[in-house]
Amino acid sequence: MKKYVMLIVAAFFLAACSSGKTEFFPSRGYSADAAEVIVIREERIFGFGFSMKVLLDGKVIARLKAGQYITFFVGSGVHTIEIPNSTINVILEGGRKHYFVIKTDSSQFGFEIEQVSENKATSRMAQSQSIN
User: Fold this and answer.
1) What are the pLDDT digits (tens) for 43-98?
2) Tally of structural domains, the chain
3) Cα separation of 124 and 34, whole Å?
4) CB 74 within 8 A of CB 35
5) Which domain holds residue 119?
6) Element (H, E) at 8
7) How far is the C-alpha of 36 from the C-alpha of 75, rounded, in Å?
8) 81 backbone dihedrals φ, ψ, rounded to 5°
9) Are 73 and 28 in contact (CB under 8 A)?
10) pTM of this prediction?
11) Which of 73, 66, 70 lies closest to 97 in space, CA to CA?
12) 110 Rama sector, left if φ>0, alpha if ψ -120 to 50, beta otherwise
């Protein structure tokens, strides 16, 4: 019995540490009317050992570890980008890049997502790894 419990615990921790795209990842490539979205997860010691779900319009599209980022293209319009317990509704314009950062905060959940400028995003991306 102990062996099965240990196996279940090990499987849980392996799943919590995995990162990458999911089956709901937007497959649309670059086009002139598509909005480019970049989501960056800060590399901080807090929460370092697990991956963070990234949702687009209610569907998990990726899981990011600390220090990773992902790029995808979506149609222009109103979209919801979220992580557990933090949501941002944005108007994404086609032909533009939109940058978002997952950062630690002092709330009870410890993380929030916010839209940032290209300058802030570029410096954070230089210290991060793409999972595309």
Assistant:
1) 765 555 678 999 999 999 999 999 999 999 999 999 999 999 899 999 999 999 99
2) 1
3) 23
4) yes
5) 19-130
6) helix 2-17
7) 9
8) -115, 130
9) yes
10) 0.79
11) 73
12) left
